[in-house]
Design goal:
mainly alpha; 93 residues; 0% strand
Length: 93
Amino acid sequence: TKQGLFQIPGLHQPSDFITIAQHAIRRCRSIRSSIVGDEKISGSTLSSQKQLQVLYKLDEISNEVCSVIDAAEFCRCVHVDKSWRDSASQAFA
């Protein structure tokens, strides 16, 4: 995908903020499902290796969220075009 605003692939018009936010939500849900699907976590003791895998997956979720939210917050603060700022605000919702 071609680089867009702030060098973010796929961010070429204001409505793309919603698209990339929805993609991040789907990706986070998928990662969360893989954590829950790996092993019953509640009430069991995970091996050190499993704990590390869960930690890495939680870090992936954090990266997904931040990839959208950080760009949206920056856009809300600095972009001169109100439609970009409004779309960036919607990405938070």
